[in-house]
Design brief:
Strand content of chain A: 15-25%
Number of strands of chain B: 0
Largest sheet of chain A: 6 strands, mixed
Number of domains of chain A: 2
CATH topology of the largest domain in chain A: Rossmann fold
Strand content of chain B: under 5%
Shape of chain B: globular
Order of helices and strands of chain A: EEEHEEEHHHEHEHEEHH
Distance between the termini of chain B: 23 Å
Largest interface: A-B, 28 and 23 residues
Number of strands of chain A: 10
Oligomer: heterodimer
Radius of gyration of chain B: 23 Å
CATH class of the largest domain in chain B: Mainly Alpha
Number of helices of chain B: 11
Radius of gyration of chain A: 19 Å
Strand order of the largest sheet of chain A: 6-7-8-3-9-10
Distance between the termini of chain A: 45 Å
Number of helices of chain A: 8
Chain lengths: 277, 273
């Protein structure tokens, strides 16, 4: 087990970390282009069962973070520890919700949700059925992804990622392509699912409001190369309704403090992109 | 919300339009045949070179009426189809396997790229004499020509389709627990499948053309041979008869593959089918 770290912003002590990043840096070396530093000096521990959001300007390496935790990417320096073991290869003990659609379009909702079980040599139609129902798609098990709306496809992906019961859920701007109403609906449903299962969630977003409304803790990143700029504990009561929590005075206060950090980085990121372009 | 009701609404006008288009298509074909016949009757198209539908149809009927024997049309068709199917199947298997391997292994792809481009630049039909010298005038040389024609079509289709598969799909199934084999059979090949199936219709046509051309150049059987024989006797009716038989076979072949293709695209949005 990794050593326990007590995070200043977090009051829970003696809780094992589900995810630990130690001195992690990531350099990308695209062919025929200059290598660039995406992440630098990342030290981050996320306790079991917590919902943590990472916010930062575009291009700050937020998504890279999830790639490293899932083992789809390997760090240039440092190490990543997930559920007590070092990440060396692609990890199948996480659920990963990608920003883009990741359902197989030639398989029905049911067949898609079934995939993780099939890959493990298991068959459990009852469990698959239960998850399809839990994300509100009971009537659409035999439909193909193109017959569903964007929000329904995200639900199917949630069921797919959770059916094999991973301890950790990684989410990469999962709702950014949805319209605002659908998005709030999905955020509330995500909180309900999370409240029932108490998984550790690492949630990436560029939307500070979404981050505060959902999380126990938010991590603000700097413009590229991405470093951790600040961390805030979100001590808003649960269960929450994401549409209503925004009017809570503590929400507003927290938003203002975090935004003052984030604003500088967004401006720096914008200046960088102007120079690059 | 019901999807069935949805599609019923959009289907009706589609059917009606198809029926109208079908009549137009028949009309165009009928006019063409009629014009050919009338121009032939009037002596504007020389019967010696162009024959006439009224001569060609009885000739084909005569061939069909002969029954099965060593030099009958049935045997010719059987041989030509055997060559086509063999060339098609072998070429497709090679094309898919090598296209897949090159798309997944960048170094391999880069190493073989110039050689493949070189071979692809050769008009394959000029290889027919080479194959006939190397493999003789029997089945093998026709199959070989078909294979070289089919291979490149399927190879390039498979290669680009597998290379361009959305990386998100691959990443997703890997995190879901897919092994290498699962990635191949659950993601890469199915994703490439529509491109491959679409290429099959083109390549089946080429396999058929390859077989006929190779028969025409040097063989002792097949529909291509029949055309070459007729040509040797300045029998244009026989030549056109052979052409009609070939065209009919090609249409039937394509129709079969269309059915196969349709059966595999139930999951696609309607407009992409």
């Amino acid at each position: 087990m990794p050593a326990l770290l007590i995070i200043p912003a977090v009051s829970d002590e003696d809780i094992a970390a589900a995810i630990s990043l130690r001195g992690v840096a990531k350099v990308y070396r695209p062919p025929r282009k200059r290598p660039y530093l995406a992440l630098e000096g990342i030290d981050l521990d996320i306790a079991v069962g917590r919902f943590v959001s990472v916010v930062g300007p575009s291009g700050c390496g937020k998504s890279t973070l999830l790639g490293l935790v899932s083992g789809l990417l390997s760090p240039t320096t440092g190490e990543v520890i997930l559920n007590g073991t070092r990440v060396e290869d692609v990890r199948t003990d996480v659920g990963f919700i990608f920003q883009r659609d990741a359902l197989l379009s030639w398989r029905t909702v049911r067949e898609n949700v079934e995939l993780p079980l099939r890959f493990r040599g298991r068959r459990d139609p009852a469990l698959v059925h239960e998850w399809i129902g839990r994300v509100g798609l009971a009537a659409f098990g035999d439909n193909y992804p193109h017959e569903l709306s964007g929000g329904m496809r995200k639900r199917a992906q949630l069921a797919q990622s959770l059916v094999a019961d991973p301890a950790v859920l990684l989410m990469d701007e999962p709702f950014s392509a949805l319209d605002v109403q659908t998005r709030n609906l999905m955020e509330n449903e995500l909180l309900n699912l999370w409240g029932a299962a108490k998984k550790t969630v690492l949630f990436i977003t560029h939307d500070l409001e979404e981050a505060i409304a959902l999380s126990d803790e938010i991590v603000v990143m700097t413009a590229g190369p991405g470093k951790i700029k600040a961390r805030y504990a979100v001590d808003l009561p649960r269960p929450r309704n994401v549409t209503e929590i925004r009017f809570d005075p503590r929400f507003v206060e927290l938003y203002e403090r975090a935004w003052s950090d984030l604003r500088d980085e967004v401006e720096r990121s914008y200046a960088q992109s102007l120079r690059a372009g | 919300m019901s999807f069935a009701a949805d599609s019923a609404v959009t289907e009706l006008p589609l059917v009606r339009r198809t029926w109208f288009v079908r009549s137009l298509q028949l009309l165009v074909i009928a006019s063409f045949v009629l014009a050919w016949e009338l121009l032939g009757q009037a002596g504007i198209l020389d019967k010696f070179f162009y024959s006439r539908p009224s001569l060609i149809v009885p000739r084909i009927a005569g061939w069909l009426g002969e029954g099965y024997h060593e030099t009958s049309i049935y045997r010719d068709i059987l041989i030509t189809l055997t060559e086509t199917v063999l060339g098609f199947v072998i070429g497709t298997l090679l094309g898919v396997a090598i296209g897949y391997a090159f798309a997944r292994n960048r170094l391999l792809g880069q190493a073989f790229d110039p050689l493949l481009s070189m071979f692809n630049a050769i008009p394959r039909l000029v290889l027919a004499p080479v194959f006939i010298l190397a493999f003789g005038i029997d089945l093998a040389s026709k199959v070989a020509l078909g294979v070289t024609l089919v291979f490149f079509i399927v190879f390039f289709a498979t290669f680009t389709a597998v290379r361009d598969v959305d990386q998100t799909l691959v990443d997703n199934v890997r995190v879901l627990g897919a092994r290498r084999r699962d990635v191949t059979f659950q993601v890469l090949l199915p994703a490439a499948f529509s491109a491959i199936v679409a290429s099959l219709r083109t390549s089946a046509g080429f396999a058929f053309a390859g077989a006929v051309v190779a028969e025409y150049i040097g063989s002792n059987a097949g529909v291509g041979r029949r055309i070459a024989n007729s040509e040797a006797f300045f029998d244009s009716t026989g030549v056109f008869g052979g052409i009609v038989v070939i065209a009919t076979l090609a249409l039937v072949l394509d129709g079969c593959l269309q059915v196969v293709e349709g059966g595999f695209s139930r999951w696609k949005p309607r407009r992409e089918r």
